[in-house]
Design a protein that fits this description.
The chain is an alpha/beta fold and 332 residues long. Helix content is 45%, strand content 12%. It folds into 2 domains: 157 residues, 3-Layer(aba) Sandwich (Rossmann fold); 155 residues, Glycogen Phosphorylase B (Rossmann fold, 3-Layer(aba) Sandwich), CATH 3.40.50. The protein has 14 helices and 10 strands. The protein is elongated.
Length: 332
Amino acid sequence: MNNELRNSFPNVFFHPSRRGLWYQPWWILIKGDELIKEHHHDVMTVHEYPPFYNGIGAKWLHRAGKIPYCLEIHHIVGHPVAASWKEKIGRILSKLYLKRDAYQAAAVRTVNESVKRTLTEWGMPGEKIHVAPSFYLNAETLKPDPSIPKKFDVAFCARIVPNKGWDTVIRAIASLPDVSIIVVGDGPERTPMEQLAFELGMINRSTFKGWLNSNADVYRAMQSAKMFVMHSTSEGGPRIALEAMAIGMPVIATRVGVMPDVIQEGVNGVFTDGTANGLAAKITMLLKDARMRENLGKEASKIVGKFERGKLVKEYAEFLKSSAQTAASELT
């Protein structure tokens, strides 16, 4: 763990499993018991996803009579569209297990309405699910900068992995002669992404920046394009699309994660259908209409108020407090 990160939050402590993820449930039980005896915590919260080792450990600790717990389900793997066979398995396991997983939990937190809706459809009690967004936006750093020249047509920023839809983005750009793209980010599939751009004859219209040194550098790079594209097949957010909106960029997005909660079609953003042809059509539409891009960007920048950091942190704290109080009242 980076010492600078450790020292950034003096009341936050890290206790990683010393034997790898396979040992995580036992570590939560053993170390959790030790910490609760020392600090007398009222509630525990766990980020849950396949193979569900965090929830298993929390359940064991709860059964030992130590503490109520809340599940946090930020993202359903492979939903609505799986980008790999691993994601398909993860989606199947989630559908089979999450309803049972929540049975002993005091509450379940999701960060967007689409995950809550899916969990409810899968049979999880709706009254147990609370939407508490985690996409904290900083109004001081997320400001449009009209002085940045528009060198590119499209900006794409993400960790380059299958569910980000990078291959569809490249194919869409390749079908549009003279349209350029700047890609900010890195990941295990960056080389295949660059290779696809080369094979489709558009490498000279593609700029791959990799990871940049700071958030400010990322925001500047994004604003060097006329629009931002988020083409994920499954997400919890993504935060980067909200940040693009906050800095006044017109955003083209798939209907995943928090996007359906925040984008009003044609008002502060544009949806695409997940296909290369559909994305190419939306890019063409925006490139032809500078006024529309300007209006979308102005409306998009208002998103900062919806996800103001202090307000969301307070809402999250109140969620945890109420969960602990509910669990305590059920025991009396």
